[in-house]
Design a protein that fits this description.
By secondary structure, this protein is an alpha/beta fold. It contains ten helices and ten strands. The strands form two sheets. Strands 6-7-8-3-9-10 form a six-stranded mixed β-sheet, sandwiched between helices. A hairpin with a 2-residue loop joins strand 4 and strand 5. It binds adenosine-5'-triphosphate. Adenosine-5'-triphosphate binds next to strand 2 and helix 1.
Length: 249
């Protein structure tokens, strides 16, 4: 397994008035790794993922991606460099089919504007790629369904597909299981696991069963600070984590 570092956070601080939402945070994510970030409400998980995606700027500290300092790089440029974030459904064109949604995302990556969508309709390679991505997120049987008619869990799968269409090296997944029933999350888990063969994944998730099934490493945040990083077994047995967060689980 590769240990190539994809993402490195150095002394990341985000201050809101007197509050440190991320407090001198260090973190690395390697290629081929699913790295979960867990912690109680208000621990700073969302603030952290916003800083990685470029939605908000850190107060101090730096973010390196593939060895390059991207702290001041725009969100759009970060996507081009291979840093993708799965948004919560808001990206989906509900009146278009699953296939068309993914094809549009592939087309956007290729740099053509939506104006050229009509020409793109005849582009076989585009739709072959979109179909393959649909399969990667488990939607092959639903590829021609209008996205607005998908079940909630399927829309979440499509979200991941739209992020994959940017050909990310690192994928940020912000609560992919949110609002899913047990059957739906059971279906999503192997799909996420398969992604890690080629890329790195940062996973924020409240569903601890999913986290412990998926993660190669887990970082536990409490009040903006890393209190532990390790394998699921290490985290499960870490006395400080048990005390601060997991209770007696
Ligand atoms: P949850 O699990 O509830 O989503 P979280 O771990 O994602 O929580 P954050 O949303 O990152 O936590 O919040 C971390 C801390 O920063 C919280 O105390 C929150 O109130 C504070 N915070 C977040 N955004 C802002 C903001 N824009 N202005 C002021 N305080 C903020």
């Amino acid at each position: 397994k590769s240990t190539e570092t994809l993402l490195e956070l150095r002394h990341l601080v985000k201050r809101y008035g007197g509050l440190l939402a991320t407090d001198n945070l260090d973190l690395t994510v390697t290629r081929g790794e699913i790295h979960a970030i867990i912690g109680p409400n208000g621990a700073g998980k969302t603030t952290l993922i916003h800083q990685i995606s470029g939605a908000i700027a850190p107060t101090s500290g730096s973010i390196l991606f593939n060895g390059r300092d991207i702290t001041g790089v725009s969100m759009h440029e970060r996507v081009k460099l291979g840093l993708a974030r799965s948004y919560q459904i808001t990206n989906i064109f509900k009146e278009y089919s699953v296939l068309d949604n993914i094809a549009l995302a592939v087309q956007a990556r290729r740099g053509s504007s939506m104006r050229f969508w009509q020409q793109a309709v005849s582009d076989k390679a585009l739709f072959d790629e979109a179909r393959a991505i649909g399969g990667q997120v488990g939607l092959e049987a639903r590829i021609d369904v209008i996205a607005g008619n998908l079940a909630h869990g399927e829309q979440r799968q499509l979200e991941v597909g739209l992020a994959l269409a940017t050909l990310p090296k690192l994928l940020l997944l912000d609560e992919p299981m949110a609002g899913m029933g047990p059957d739906e999350s059971a279906r999503l888990i192997p799909l996420i696991r398969n992604l890690r063969n080629e890329i790195g994944v940062v996973l924020i998730e409240h569903d601890m069963d999913a986290v412990f099934q998926l993660a190669d490493r887990i970082t536990v945040l409490v009040a903006g600070r890393v209190i532990a990083t390790g394998t699921p077994d290490q985290i499960r047995n870490d006395p400080e984590v048990k005390k601060a967060y997991l209770g007696d689980e």
